[in-house]
Amino acid sequence: MTDSVLYDEDGSIALLTLNRPDKLNALDYATVDALAQHLDAIEDCADLRAVILTGKGRAFSAGADIAEFAGSMQRGVEPALKEFLKRGQALTARIESFGKPVIAAVNGMAFGGGCEVVEACAMAVASERALFGKPEIKLGITPTFGGTQRLPRLIGRKRALKMILTGDPITAADAAELGLVSDVVRHSQLLSHARNLAHRVVAWSPIAITACLRSVTRGVNVPIDEGLAIEASQFAVTVPTQDSREGIAAFLEKRAPRFRGV
Length: 262
Hints:
- This protein is α/β, with parallel strands linked by helices.
- It has 2 domains: about 5-200, 2-enoyl-CoA Hydratase, Chain A, domain 1, CATH 3.90.226; about 205-250.
- Helices cover about 50% and strands about 15% of the residues.
- The chain has 11 helices and 10 strands.
- The chain has helices spanning about 30-45, 65-75, 75-95, 115-120, 145-155, 155-165, 170-180, 190-200, 205-220, 225-240, 240-250, and strands at about 5-10, 15-20, 50-55, 60, 100-105, 110, 125, 130-135, 170, 185.
- The strands form 2 sheets. The chain has a 6-stranded mixed β-sheet, with helices on both faces. The protein has a 4-stranded mixed β-sheet with strand order 4-6-8-9.
- It is globular, with a radius of gyration of 19 Å.
- About 40% of the residues are buried.
- The mean pLDDT is about 95.
């Protein structure tokens, strides 16, 4: 694994830290690939139940590494699509569809691809110092890691287009008001707040958590009838499990549940 992404564990929580502070944690190709590899390893480890993603230094991520992707663009459309856009879209799709909750702890600027990573995470909390922006328009390009699709779904078409077409950044408070993040906390409390949130989530059934993630992620982009069918299919996954039997028994017996793997 490259040192551009630091890895740590806090019990059942994996911590991934973007580690290019001198480049404002810009997402070069090696960093994107390293993040994907870490997620693969975390997915395969049953003892790890959630992921916190943050940045080292004063930025979460300033976005894609412009100097690197400019080279792909200079070689033409196909290299730009294959090396740059598809790589970034694959990463954000991986984060969005991950079977364990990924929580963004946004410690500073989250611009371009960095903002798109936040959009893809299941949950996001922000430092009071955080800024969010879509500056791609200033480069003469569109957002490329899914931002033209996820941001409107998260905050609404007109608000998203204002960010995308002006390139103007918004504050953490603005991001919370729009629904891009759920909480804004003092900078010194960011990681402890994210860890607390992660531990509150992983106290519950792993099977139910994954079913909820899949229901919401798959259902949000389809008509309501299809979404309800997805909800039914994920509920059906939980019905025959020991966890559902334990959860119901614990409620009826007025005690705390003891879920498997918790």
